[in-house]
Structure formats: structure tokens, C-alpha cells
Amino acid sequence: MTTTVSGGPGTGTVERGAGTAPAADGRPDPGSGAAGGEPATWRAVASATGPADRTAAEAAVRLAYRRAGLAAPERVVWTGSPLEGTAAALLLTGVGDRLPEQVTARAAAALRAAGAVPGREGAGRPVRDEIRTRPWAAERQRLLAALGPAGWAERWALTAAPLWDLTRALADRVRTAVVEELARTPEDERTVRLAMLHAVLGQHDAPWLASVAGPPAPAAPGAADDGAPATGGTPDPGALDGLAGVARAAGWWWPYEKVVILSERPAELHRDEAGRLDRGDGPALAYPDGFALYAWRGMPVPAEFPARLADLSAERIRAEDNAELRRVMLEHYGYDRYLAESGARPLHRDETGVLWRIELPDDEPVVMVEVVNSTPEPDGTRRTYWLRVPPRTRTAREGVAWTFGLDAEEYHPRRET
User: Fold this and answer.
1) What's the whole-number mean pLDDT along residues 37-59?
2) Which residues, in sequence order, are bridge partners of residue 370?
3) Do strands 259-263 and 75-79 pair parallel, antiparallel, or not at all (unpaired)?
4) Mean pLDDT of 10-34
5) How far, in Å, are 24, 128, 169, 349 from residue 133 at the CA level?
6) Crossing angle of helices 101-114/82-92, nearest 10°?
7) What's the confidence (pLDDT) of residue 380?
8) Which residues contact 73 (CB under 8 A, 6 or more apart)?
9) What pLDDT sits at residue 71?
10) Does the structure show a pLDDT above 50 at 224?
11) What number is the average pLDDT over the span 126-154?
12) Is residue 254 within 8 Å of residue 274, measured between CB atoms?
């Protein structure tokens, strides 16, 4: 099953089962049935698609600056994606002279629309440290002191951990794609990565926001008493409300002293049941300005690759030089179908099934056991299943036993269903 989310103007639909995105002002969505900081709510934030709530995001930005003791930014620049946002940050700080022409044109237009003047003097210094790093560290330390190490670990496990791996992987994929689009040389790559270090990740900061802006947790026995208010580990509602508000309303953003650059959220997000980017007929992640990532079950594929999946054949699969793309083709086409159409010969057969093997150039061979369900279907027929087993497998029994975590000598089923 593939989980698909997409958004159109004014819709902002989100990952199936995660509920809709909460209001940007911090109020839980009335239909979500969740408090503002519960993991399900932050999961919805991390996966939210559709147009940003620009009014709410800009208000939250001003609040974040005020919490940090800074004056509100003079200019607000809106961009269509993290790609365009990174390009705008490079242009704004006077180091974007080697960017690709098309991206440069879009980013320059976004800056002009906001009246922002490129150059270090126009932007002022980056203020991510004051806006994001210090408040997060202070609130984390306060909660750690109130809850104790065990209590903090439990809080992290219940709030941030369920979102951490998936969201971090998605943000890392976005970073990699931005570098690939904008950097032509190793020196360019360092410059682009430095620009992204100044970014606050907006909705993709949901995991750590869940840990410090979530619901209260009981203090752990023996927790240190540092004189903090007797809140039992309750997050300070005002400490990170600006950051949380931007996360609920927008994507990545770059805070500078005089200018803030904000980016839109994705228009589409498609994942498989394991949470990996996955789509066979288009981009798995797409932003409104055209920046997109293509992937099949988590593996990056070229943009033109999904179109090639529509008319696959065993011959086309064999002719694919890239072993990783050939593996994607096999998964999409079906190993059993490939075996049937590629003239594969059985390697071994016994009472458990038939062992098949196909050699692939520059890749490990495909070895599978063909087994027949011992329980007939209602119409009296029996289904055939294909079990992929390690290439070292030499007999069908060995392969079937491996699927149960057993050696061939240990596999003696008393009853088959």
C-alpha cells in the first residue's frame, strides 16, 4: 500500500492516518482530537502538504524574533521550495554568482518582489543561533533538569523518536537534491551546504518540537531540583511558540537580521508503508515551483524513470546497465513474471518447491523458490508464491527453511496451511 498525500489551493491535506495539520497559531485542529503537542499532531505537521499559511507564518516569524530579543525583519521573501529558498539565501548574501540560470532567475524574482537587496549589507547577519539553537537548547535543558535523565529519555522516546528517522531522512534527501541542483564544483557544494546550515527546517523540525513543545510528562523519581517552577516537566508555552507556529504554517526558512526567507510546503508527498518516498508514476515529493524528488521504495531514481516503468519487458530489464535501477525495475515488474518470461531454468526441485536462479550482469543473481499453497482456494485452485532467498541457496528446502530462520535440516513442518 502506498500512502499518498497531496494538496491543492486551500486544501493542505496530510499523511493518511496522521490527521490534518494543526492551526499555525498553535491551536490543535478541531478535527484531530489531539492536543497541540501530541506526536500525531506533530506527525501531521511534518507531513503536511499544500500552500503555506503565509499570514500565520509571518506572524509566527515576528513572534520568534521577538522571543529572541530581535527586531522583526524588514523584508519577508517567499520562495517555492527549499531549492529556491537556498538560492535566494545565496543571492541575498552575495555568494550566488555561480547558480544555475533558471533557479537564479526565480530566486532573484522572489527577492525583487519583497524589495530585498542582494548583498551582505542588505540581509544583515544570519540569526538562526538566536532564533532556533539557543531557545531549543535552553528549553531542552530546563526539561532535562525537571524530568531527570530517565524522564527526559522517556519523553523523547514518546514524542520525538516516532518521527525522527522518517523526517530526518526526508530532510536529508531534500538537502542532497538541493546540493545536486545548485553545486557545480566541490567549492560550490561547500557554499550551498553553508547556506543550508543557516536554515530553520520549519515543518521538518517537527520531531524536536514534539519533544520540547509537547504535552507535560511526569517528573522522574530523583529528578534534580534546579529551582525551576514545579511544572512536572511541562514545556514553557512561550519559549518556542514562534518556531512552532512557523513549523505549522510553512516549510524551511532562513532568518537574517533584516530579511527572512520562507519557503512553501510540498504540493505532493507519496510514501510506501515503511514511510519511504515511493511513486511509480511521477514525483514522490513535489513542490509548487517544480522542485521534485523521484523515488521507488526509498531509492532515488531519475525524473524520467517512472515513464520507463510503464512499458517494461524482460528484455528491457536485462538491458539496463545500472544495477540499482534494474533492481527497481524487477520489483516493479515482479520477480515471478520476470522469471517466467526470461527463460529461467529450475536449479533444483523437491517436495517443498522449485528453486530458480537468474544471473544478472554486475549484480547478485536472483534466486527464488516457487511454492504452492497447501490450502486450496474456495474454487479448489491453489496459489503459487515466489520466495526470494539468498543467492547461496542450493536447494528448494534450504530456501523455504531460510524464510523461517531455519537450516534445511531443521525444517520439518508438522502441518502446512
Assistant:
1) 89
2) 354, 386
3) parallel
4) 36
5) 21, 7, 21, 62
6) 70
7) 66
8) 61, 62, 65, 255, 256, 257, 258, 259, 260
9) 96
10) no
11) 92
12) no
**Cell 501531521 belongs to which residue?**
44
* Farthest-apart Cα atoms in the chain, separation: 79
DSSP 203: G
Could you tell me what percent of the chain has a pLDDT over 70?
Answer: 81
Secondary element (H or E) of residue 250: none
Residue 33 in grid coordinates: 482530537
Q: pLDDT digit string (tens) for 101-134?
A: 889 999 999 999 999 987 766 788 999 999 999 9
Q: Would you tell me the crossing angle of helices 241-249 and 54-67 to the nearest 10 degrees?
A: 160
Q: Alpha carbon of 144 to those of 35, 138, 151, 297, 365: distances in Å? A: 22, 10, 8, 38, 51
Q: Which residue has the cell 531443521?
A: 410
Rounded Cα–Cα distance for residues 320 and 367 (Å): 19
User: For the CA atoms of the chain, what is the radius of gyration?
Assistant: 26
| CA angle 278–280–284, rounded 5-degree value | 40
User: Do 128 and 198 meet the contact criterion of CB atoms below 8 Å apart?
Assistant: yes
Q: What are phi and psi of 78, to 5 degrees?
A: -105, 135
Distances (CA, A) of 16 to 50, 174, 192, 249: 14, 21, 34, 19
Q: 3 — phi, psi (to 5°)?
A: -85, 125
Sheet with 285-286, strands from edge to edge, namely: 2-6, 268-272, 285-286, 292-293
Rounded to the nearest integer, the mean pLDDT of the chain is 81
